[in-house]
Amino acid sequence: MAFIQQALTAVGLPDTDAAEVAGLMAAADLQGSDGHGVSRLPQYVRRIKAGGFNVRPNIHVVHEHASTAVLNGDNGMGHLVMKRAAEMAIEKARATGIGWVNSQFSNHAGPASLYATMPLAHDMIGLYFAVGNANHLPPWGGLDMLLSTNPIAAAIPAGDERPIVLDMATTVAAYGKVKTKALRGETMPQGWMIDRKGQPLTDPKRADEGMLLPLGGMEAGYKGYGLAMIIGLLAGTLGGAAMGREVIDFNHDDDSVTNTGQAIAAINIAAFGDVALFKRSVDALVRDFRNSERIPGVDRIWVPGERSHETRMKRTNGGIPVAPALLRALDQVADDLGISRLGD
């Protein structure tokens, strides 16, 4: 975290903002979201230097009602915009039972679960939707890249059990996982991507030659396509942010304003009934799932969020692995900025 904060401060972020972004990026790595943590730092630094991010944004409300708001991120770091949006949604849910906040002129903010889980501490359910920062998905049956991975996340509090946390792209694999495979020199499994002739594409370094497959794959991908479209409309179009052809590929464009759209909702459980009873019911459901009969060869039934929690505990105690190619890139960032290398 300290290395990320130092790098962001070196390129102009105020100390407090740099600390907030660094903390969220480190949290992404701790939970195993390797495509959204420190691996993004070289790209962030490059975009800041090119003017693609506003390091001192005026994040402000442009529309507001009792339960809803639209937040203009002024092209600031997406982490700052969405943390503010989550805080607003929580306050509105405390007052009215539900809060929904859209962002416009935001940027990549890391894994969706970072923000969906923020309402948990307030006995609230969190929902998060986003338009991805590059289009890698065509309409079902098409070739034009008009949709992104458009993720969705949901976090539901429990009592004695861990919260249920779902964080998923609307494609078979998030593009961040493709980038992580490339950094590690690994191949992708068949079923993640296809080329423009419909053939499997497994080399992540050739990802620009192909397209991600929507949830459902080749058999039922129309379901993932439909979900990606709906999420894009909710997170992008509804809040006046980019969608479809308007989406900027920030992997290849360092200076254009992306006008990234996200949305977060907080649902106050107390507005629907007794909070303790709800949590006990969630606990009972989790235990029913976990203890239900398994098919041969299955050792454990997992509930959404449990794997990330185990990764977080493991990495908190044993450290976060960094691929050699990523370490070289981070060393280059440090040298360019005149700061100490990671681990020095």
TrEMBL record:
The keyword Transmembrane helix does not apply. Pfam families: Ldh_2 (PF02615). The keyword Ribosomal protein does not apply. One of its GO terms (molecular function) is oxidoreductase activity. Gene3D superfamilies: 1.10.1530.10, Hypothetical oxidoreductase yiak, domain 2 (3.30.1370.60). InterPro entries: Mal/L-sulf/L-lact_DH-like_ah, Mal/L-sulf/L-lact_DH-like_NADP, Mal/L-sulfo/L-lacto_DH-like_sf, Malate/L-lactate_DH-like. Keywords: Oxidoreductase. Transmembrane segments: none annotated. It comes from the Bacteria. Belongs to the LDH2/MDH2 oxidoreductase family. This is Lactate dehydrogenase.
